[in-house]
């Protein structure tokens, strides 16, 4: 299904709690497909918040913020499959009432705490979105953030660990040590040099 022009509200085009497959167009005019559940949308920043389930990790899910302008296609994952799975789960619950009765009660406090954590995570994700940057720049920023944690925007440049700058068009050749780091002996053999090489490898792998 092709992406609809933004005549309708994002909340209508991307309904909350809908499992969708989105096709994104990055800065190199290459398409990338991502799948997740629509967590929420924001009309002001023109963004979609996608929630993805994670495996082999202590985290239950990952929040991704996507600029709606880079979405070139969308597809709702077959609702019948979800309905069938839900029916099977309900049937299983009806057959195992005794087991269901033994499950611990979910307290209101636990639900509110999970909601607060989700909202905090979403707010942090919004702070990491740079409307001035290209989709490719945002993609590189997200990769660096996952790998290095301490990443921020300065204009359209990405600052990593307070000592490395990645300028547009965000290739490994655009990664440089900040002047203060170089002055403190951050050459190729120093700590800054090792960090620079690591950042270059992350940027190259993200291309």
Written account of the structure:
The model is unreliable at 2-6, 80-91 and 95-103 (pLDDT under 50). This protein has 7 helices and 9 strands; from the N terminus they run αβββββααααββββαα. The chain is globular, with a radius of gyration of 21 Å. Strand 3 and strand 4 (61-67) form a beta hairpin. It has a 5-stranded antiparallel beta sheet, covered by helices on one side. Strands 6-7-8-9 form a 4-stranded antiparallel beta sheet. The protein has helices at 10-13, 79-95, 97-101, 108-127, 135-148, 179-183, 191-206; strands spanning 19-25, 31-42, 47-53, 61-67, 71-76, 151-154, 157-160, 164-166, 175-177.
The largest sheet is: 5 strands, antiparallel
The fraction of residues assigned to DSSP E strands is 25-35%
**Average pLDDT over all residues:** 77
How many distinct helices? 7
List the uncertain runs. 2-6, 80-91, 95-103
Number of strands: 9
Structural class: alpha+beta
Shape: globular
- Our Rg estimate from Cα atoms comes to 21 Å
Strand order of the largest sheet: 4-3-2-1-5
Q: What is the secondary structure topology, with strand pairs?
A:
Blueprint: H1 10-13, E1 19-25, E2 31-42, E3 47-53, E4 61-67, E5 71-76, H2 79-95, H3 97-101, H4 108-127, H5 135-148, E6 151-154, E7 157-160, E8 164-166, E9 175-177, H6 179-183, H7 191-206
Antiparallel strand pairs: 1-2, 1-5, 2-3, 3-4, 6-7, 7-8, 8-9
Helix pairs in contact: 5-7
In short:
Helices cover 39% and strands 26% of the residues. The protein is of the alpha+beta class and 207 residues long.
